[in-house]
Amino acid sequence: MILVTGAAGYIGSILTEKLIDSGYQVVALDNLSKGHRSAVHKDAVFVKADIGDRPAINGLFQNYTIDAVMHLAADTEVERSFAEPYHFFFNNVASPLNLLDCMLSNNVGTFIFSSSAAVYGEPAEIPVSEVTPTCPINPYGETKLMFEKILHWFSRTKSLNSVALRYFNVAGASACLGEDHKPASTLIAAIIDVATGNRDFLPVFGNDYDTKDGTCIRDFIHVVDIADAHIKALQYLQSKKGFHIFNLGNGDGYSVMEVIEAARKVTGKSIPVKLCPRRPGDPVNVISSASLARSELHWKPSFPKIENLIESAWIWQNQHPQGYNDF
Ligand SMILES: NC(=O)c1ccc[n+]([C@@H]2O[C@H](COP(=O)([O-])OP(=O)(O)OC[C@H]3O[C@@H](n4cnc5c(N)ncnc54)[C@H](O)[C@@H]3O)[C@@H](O)[C@H]2O)c1
Fold first, then answer.
1. Residue 209 has what DSSP assignment?
2. Active site residue 140
3. What is the total count of domains within the chain?
């Protein structure tokens, strides 16, 4: 069985769905601080627990035969990480350390970690490869880098084989599951919120950056492609030992204004914007090279076009105007 943490969240729920559709059995763990119980696939075993809860996590490893852990549970909002650094370091570093210790004590040694392009900060080069220096510019990115370092050292000193997947900007939906963060915390989700009329305008944070139109540039990747990479990483770890890092992005950079323009075309909505000051912790330009994941994991994004990502999110939102509606 595969233990997925954060399985009621946006990416974790779609990963759980993909695992089950691919024939895996899943224990889906979430403390429901942000996630939605109804997003968890009906064939998964749902466990409501916090990854920092030692008796609960130890009990889980004793009750189920877990072969591998896919760890997605985390606090994720960059802006909030400046306001609540204690909470972020606790939940994204200390609590997963508990998870890691419990799994190793129960002889489980395969771990896949949701890392982030935020570890690169303002990247020293474009495209960003796995050897580009890491230098986070917000507490969130630092928590991801710290946990990668923990995995590196545990892989050298303990019976741990692990992969850190550094996602770039994740967007889109599967046929049944989508992103329901309130408020929307990512660009495409926020755009969809405006397109559906849930918000009056989209704040654009800074239009005076040194880019083609003055707005930040990002690399977007479909959530289903992210889920697929986890399965490829699991297969990879069957024959590879140690700790490995892979970027997951499409390799194309879109400015914020270009994404808005693409969304106007896909949705047919005007999507009003409001220019706002730059936000601390926002890098200017982040575009991946994911050639290592392509060559080593044999992973290839199925949704390379930004329009595909926006369209799937738009369709899901229209089918679920209240999101999961389970609060
Ligand atoms: N969304 C992106 O663009 C993106 C990009 C890079 C990396 N990531 C990483 O991917 C992972 C999933 O992100 P998401 O967008 O699905 O976020 P999300 O908030 O939708 O999902 C995270 C889930 O973890 C749960 N959770 C949080 N702390 C927990 C704890 N201590 N114990 C148990 N459950 C806990 C929450 O309830 C939530 O359901 C995160 O680790 C995030 O840092 C996301």
1. S
2. yes
3. 2
